[in-house]
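Task card 7
Instruction: Convert sequence to structure tokens.
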Amino acid sequence: MAAEGVAAVIVGVVELIVGLTGHATSARGAYGLTFWLVPMGAAVLAGGWALWTGHRWGRTLGVLTNLLLLPVGYQMIFPSHQPVLGIPVLVLAVAVLVLLFSPATVAWLDAGYRREE
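Output:
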């Protein structure tokens, strides 16, 4: 998850640089993508960091983000005919979801709610 967040922030910063230097096809599009990807990437990065440091709330961000990435990957593969971009997005989203719902993750989440009697 943290890697997804870092990637989103990097792409957002690159788009900002491309827009500022005048090399973008549409400056408005470059700025819009920047102002979408940087905050979203920072939130996903924070969720990844939360999971890494043992906070359960990061899982919610991961699940929501990767559920939203599934149709994005599909859209890139089939209607947009860009499988080089869509397949890695789809594979990464599925892999992160599998990890977030793995038995070890679910046991870790459940451990905080069990009472010792």
